[in-house]
Amino acid sequence: MAVQTIKQTSSHRIRDGGAINLYLQACKNMSEQYFHYPRKALFKDYLQSFAGAAIFSSPLIVAWSNPYVAVILGAIAIMFLSFGFSTWRRHRTSIVVTDEAIGSVGAKVVRMAWEQIDQVDLRYFSTRRERGRLTLGDEKGGWMEMKLHGEGKVLRIDSSLENFQKLAGYVVEASERFPIKMTPVSKENFAALGLAPDNSCSDGT
After folding, report:
1. Which uninterrupted H or E stretch holds 77?
2. CA dist 73 to 49, 52, 59, 100, 123, Å?
3. What is the DSSP string of 98-139?
4. Angstrom distance (rounded) from CA 115 to CA 84
5. Cβ proximity of 43 and 81 under 8 Å
6. Cα(164)–Cα(62) distance, rounded to whole angstroms?
7. Residue 101 near residue 23 (C-beta atoms within 8 A)
8. How far apart are CA 94 and CA 15, in angstroms?
9. Residue 33 parent element (H or E)
10. In whole angstroms, what is the distance from residue 34 CA to residue 77 CA?
């Protein structure tokens, strides 16, 4: 690609990461929409991560005499640190949607043209003891994760994303234009969000 084209598009930068939005170069003359993870929710996750890591790593100073206890405490501390790293990646990531593609920019750059997506999975994870089905307006009882598969790539999107329901609507619209597979469970979860992917393919699982 010509250097001049890159210079012309270099003004399009991500608000949080400061990286160049590379795939706008491949999606000319199209409007793009940015979706971000809310700072308030991220701050809460950061706090939980660092607090948990501190609580379970501090006893390691006196727990080295018992290797079994040290391994357990260390594993739990690493789990909290891993959650903190995942939170950092969400903090530095924005989801971008155009008429022809969807992707992420920031900590990880992924671009998937709508026609390249061959499968969509939408799963619901309950935080309640009674794990019932998700109903519209009951999203606070858990969270959802959407995975887009295509061309050997996977794009993961968490429901804590701002305007997640609107983004899910774009995915449903794409499933009506292209042969995108969805499991029956995924269709039910979309329906719980008030969306009905009637024309999408089903993989029968």
Report:
1. helix 67-91
2. 14, 11, 8, 47, 30
3. -SSEEEEEESS-EEEEGGG--EEEEEEEE-SSS-----TT-G
4. 34
5. no
6. 45
7. yes
8. 9
9. strand 33-36
10. 34
pLDDT tens series, the chain, 205 aa: 333 332 333 333 334 343 334 444 444 434 788 898 887 776 777 788 888 888 888 887 777 777 888 888 888 888 888 877 777 777 778 889 998 999 988 877 889 999 999 999 999 987 654 444 444 444 456 778 999 999 889 999 988 888 999 999 999 999 999 999 999 999 999 998 888 776 556 565 5
The pairing of strands 119-126 and 33-36 is unpaired
DSSP for 120-187 reads EEEEEEE-SSS-----TT-GGGEEEEEEEEETTEEEEEETTSTTHHHHHHHHHHHHHHS--EE-HHHH
Retrieve residue 35's tokens: 């979706």
Give helix 67-91 / helix 39-57 axis angle, nearest 10°. Answer: 160
Question: How many Å apart are CA 10 and CA 8, to the nearest integer?
Answer: 6
Give me the residue label for tokens 């969400």: 90
Distance (Å, rounded) from C-alpha 179 to C-alpha 117? 8
